[in-house]
């Protein structure tokens, strides 16, 4: 009897999930961010080096995250209603909206504080600081929100996917520093283009997850 | 019905007949997990006829364990089932008692 209960609740959980939709929307948001990042980035170079600011992140991501999580929530609610079950997506959507507020607050605080008070007196930054910086970027916060979704849906596969994703965006891909682009000698252009590849990698990871979860979803009844 | 199982009594004594019945336990389990579940979904998952499911829903509703809400989506009539707090508590108590019962049986074997 207990195993029947477990089987029934497991089926309900599988029927409530739309993981592939969430990951697809977030992958799309990441791809659309790239031109915004390039368009609004400022770069100033002189003999001593270059300074740059990624204003596009601030202009684009808070609104994009709000829209993305609204789209995800509506998609979950519609699909669940069509299937005849309720949904657990609302806390995830609220977490996503909170991440939009966090990005805005961090961006404003950094813009107000760091120009006159560079962290570590402008010297080399410790690794933990770099990881923390990546965590409060949109891609790190997307991962944190996905952990909430995995918990809400009791979705072990999504949990492990998210752990892998967070390792990728926090420890492997330099989302805050960019990746050097070969054959580009102009330092300003190099800075601009170096931000593109990390975003493409993050979008590809999310898209790969979306495809994987789409293929693994239970058959339509 | 809603109290946590008393381990001094044999767990079978505390089983609630309304909840313990296989189909009704299934309805409560699905309703708890889904938060809100539609009649057709329950019928398909539990492999019941509409009439049979209706009878079990009536028993649960009379016991105050579920709320039934009837409405329309377009021209299509839909019936939604939601567990009441008493229904959630009854399900939790039933599962606890079943676990205690299994533990006792495994202890003796």
TrEMBL record, chain B:
Q: Record's superkingdom?
A: Bacteria
**InterPro entries in alphabetical order:** WH-like_DNA-bd_sf, WH_DNA-bd_dom, WH_DNA-bd_sf
* Location of the Winged helix DNA-binding domain: 23-102
* Coiled coil stretches, renumbered: none
**What Gene3D superfamilies does the annotation carry?**
Winged helix-like DNA-binding domain superfamily/Winged helix DNA-binding domain
Which PANTHER family has this protein been placed in? BSL7504 PROTEIN
**Name under which the protein is recorded:** Transcriptional regulator
């Amino acid at each position: 009897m207990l195993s029947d209960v477990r089987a029934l609740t497991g089926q309900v959980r599988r029927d409530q999930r739309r993981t592939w939709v969430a990951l697809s929307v977030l992958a799309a948001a990441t791809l659309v961010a790239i031109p915004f990042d390039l368009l609004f980035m400022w770069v100033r170079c002189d003999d001593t080096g270059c300074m740059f600011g990624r204003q596009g992140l601030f202009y684009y991501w808070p609104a994009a995250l709000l829209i993305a999580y609204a789209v995800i929530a509506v998609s979950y609610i519609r699909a669940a209603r069509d299937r005849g079950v309720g949904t657990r997506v609302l806390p995830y959507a609220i977490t996503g909206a909170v991440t939009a507020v966090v990005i805005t607050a961090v961006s404003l605080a950094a813009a107000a504080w760091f120009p006159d008070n560079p962290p570590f007196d402008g010297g080399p930054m410790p690794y933990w600081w770099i990881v923390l910086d990546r965590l409060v970027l949109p891609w790190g916060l997307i991962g944190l929100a996905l952990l909430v979704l995995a918990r809400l849906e009791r979705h072990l596969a999504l949990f492990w996917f998210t752990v892998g994703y967070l390792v990728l965006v926090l420890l492997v891909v330099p989302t805050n520093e960019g990746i050097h682009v070969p054959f580009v000698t102009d330092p300003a252009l190099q800075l601009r283009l170096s931000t593109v590849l990390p975003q493409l990698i993050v979008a590809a990871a999310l898209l790969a997850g979306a495809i994987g979860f789409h293929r693994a979803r239970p058959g339509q009844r | 019905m809603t109290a946590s199982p008393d381990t001094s009594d044999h767990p079978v004594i505390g089983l609630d007949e309304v909840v313990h019945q296989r189909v009704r336990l299934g309805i409560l389990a699905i309703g708890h997990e889904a938060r809100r579940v539609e009649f057709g979904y329950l019928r398909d998952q539990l492999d019941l006829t509409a009439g049979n499911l209706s009878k079990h829903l009536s028993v649960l509703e009379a016991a105050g364990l579920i709320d039934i809400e009837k409405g329309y989506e377009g021209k299509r009539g839909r019936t939604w089932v939601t567990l009441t707090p008493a229904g959630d508590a009854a399900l939790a108590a039933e599962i606890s008692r079943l676990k205690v019962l299994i533990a006792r049986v495994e202890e003796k074997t």
